[in-house]
Amino acid sequence: MEKEKIECKNCCNCTSENCPHTNVDENTLYDLAELFKVFGDSTRIRIISALMDGEMCVYHLSERLSAGQSAISHQLRILRAAGLVRPRREGKEMYYSLDDEHVEEIYGAGLAHILHKGGFCE
Amino acid sequence: MEKEKIECKNCCNCTSENCPHTNVDENTLYDLAELFKVFGDSTRIRIISALMDGEMCVYHLSERLSAGQSAISHQLRILRAAGLVRPRREGKEMYYSLDDEHVEEIYGAGLAHILHKGGFCE
DNA sequence: CTAACACATGAATATATGTTCATATGTTAA
DNA sequence: TTAACATATGAACATATATTCATGTGTTAG
Fold it and tell me: Given 3-state DSSP classes, what are the helix, strand and coil percentages for chain A, each rounded to the nearest 5?
């Protein structure tokens, strides 16, 4: 089965054969796995879910998730390193928010799969 | 910051307040993390990437990924359990293919994030 | 039926990872 | 400056997970 040149449906609309969307090298696949690994933890996905309601400080996150402050901080560090959340200091507190729209897109795509398998829609 | 009723942009177009897309409970978040965990492994994401070119049998997968047959089989089992790939027997061989369009959507959403951070586009 | 092949699976091992505890850093109020 | 607070971080420990090896199951050719 031959791979045909298709229109890229992701972040760009290019039809170039060299578009990294269609020609994914091993390093990119590794990075991709690393990205999904970040989404693949209960605590982190709950943080992401919470931040969809708006920015929140560490204390409130740990309160909402009933988790230790240290655990939340550690996970926020990982989320930050992956470019998924962004901190903003205000006095003593550190407010975190989702970094860009991709986070919600990935989350939404995963959720659609779960709900589809669950038979909710489609 | 109040959560306002928004139009669901995922698998359905409902505006119901009870739509699981907007009211995600803890169990669903747990399932979501489990799903991303499946994407969050180099071998599995490489299998998914390979299957985007079309169905493939276990032997050819292990050949293409330079991995052991057993390792591939173990990972295929996990992908199957998550509803991401589907097997089809043909004689002695077992051909695997991506289960539905969500797999490519999740993959694409993640890839868009990687490439965006890498500065390729947007 | 039997041998050969393709794939699946269980056990074992090594590695990765999340949480906790203790402590460090940074900020503000007094 | 000092005390109190919010967050970050390092070390240690427990758990989860991916691969390998050995073997089991299923299919086909002879």
Answer: 50, 10, 40
Per-residue pLDDT of chain A (122 residues; tens, 9 = 90+): 443 444 555 455 555 555 656 678 999 999 999 999 999 999 999 999 999 999 999 999 999 999 999 999 999 999 999 999 999 999 999 999 999 999 999 999 999 999 988 876 65
Rounded CA–C1' distance between A30 and D27, in angstroms: 36
Measured CA B62 to C1' D28 distance, in angstroms: 22
Distances (CA, A) of A48 to A70, B84, B117: 17, 23, 18
CB contacts of A53 in chain B (<8 Å) are: 1, 3
- Are B102 and A111 a contacting pair at CB < 8 A? no
Total CB pairs under 8 A between chain A and B: 170
